[in-house]
Amino acid sequence: MLIPFSPVLWLLALCVLVQLYYVGYYFLPFARRPAEPTAAAAAGPVSVLVCAHNELENLRRLLPLLLQQDYAPGFEVILIDDRSGDDTSPYVQQLTQYYPNVRLVSVDRTPDGLSPKKYALTLGIRTARHEQLLFTDADCIPATSQWISHMQRGFARPAELVLGYSPYVPGPGFLNKLIRFETLLTGAQYLSFAWRGRAYMGVGRNLAYTQHCFRTTKGFASHIRSLGGDDDLLVQDAVQHGQRATVVAEPAAHTLTEAAPTWRAWWRQKRRHLSAGRGYRLADRLRIGNFIGANLLFYITAVALLFSRADWVPLAVLWGARTAAICITYAKLGRRLDDPLPAVWLPLLDVVYFFHYLALGISLFLYRNLRWK
């Protein structure tokens, strides 16, 4: 005989079951996966591409670390100067005199209606000498001198797309923790989904693909007028064209970057990233939407049940079981990806993140105007 709980409580239980499915099928198995092999078939030389717009100070930090990479087959570094008004071009030109593997591509203007970054990247890719392309952003740094080596091993599995992870550097304050939590949760999704054979996105801060893959998708042609999506929408197109994707998520393969310093800056950044989601395949939108929706509905339903005295006990049980499961899972993912967060903060970060996600969704629905640099 069924216990006469309210229908809202049964809805809450369903939300918990959906979340536990993602935890049990995607996140925990990914966190527990075997260590990636330390040796693989030798990959070929690689072109490392960095697109920069007024990023001189960041480039002074990044480029020396790229040149110190330990990668025997060899590599070139292509810096794409996208309409910079600072001294980016003279600085890189100076480097080219001492390092023959450094090359500069200058973009003076972007044709009307085209995404500046996608146009700049396209010009850079056209000049690349090697088949394998590795991308990062000017405000990132490789975590180790083995970054290129680790990322290139993914091509030998074999694959045409290699998805990496790019955490933010720990810092003081709640915003930094929230940004790192969002990055961990996003990484848990796109990395574990790809690990299960359902790749749907990557991050341009740490992404690799072949020239053949880029030509197969006709570059950024399908979304060249959209500001965002030089990474995730390209992955969408590549998967639709039958290109194979793999994951390289060992800590030595990470790139690191500084988190947005203000709420406003992070808000603009996330609006731009989420806007690309409209171009995802239906199956991917449903898979992601079910996870996000189940979490949001869980919190909304739980708040409603707080006003139902008779359901306080089952509510507490479901809340406790769900919170324990996700906190344990996120802690394991953080350790596996070398991006740990204080365990005591995880429940609060989870609540704030999903309501922040809801606010972003409403904002994108009401105001669709976006700005690039």
From TrEMBL:
Please, which domain of life does this record's source organism belong to?
A: Bacteria
Against SUPFAM superfamilies, the record matches this protein to: Nucleotide-diphospho-sugar transferases (SSF53448)
State the InterPro entries in the record. Answer: Glyco_trans_2-like (IPR001173), Nucleotide-diphossugar_trans (IPR029044)
Residues annotated as domain Glycosyltransferase 2-like: 47-182
Q: Name one Pfam family in it.
A: Glycos_transf_2
Protein keywords: Glycosyltransferase, Membrane, Transferase, Transmembrane, Transmembrane helix
Record bears the keyword Glycosyltransferase: yes
Q: Which residues cross the membrane?
A: 6-28, 288-307, 343-367
Keyword rRNA processing (UniProt): no
What the record says about family reads: Belongs to the glycosyltransferase 2 family.
What's the name of the protein?
Glycosyltransferase
What is the originating organism of this protein?
Hymenobacter algoricola
Lineage of source species: Bacteria, Pseudomonadati, Bacteroidota, Cytophagia, Cytophagales
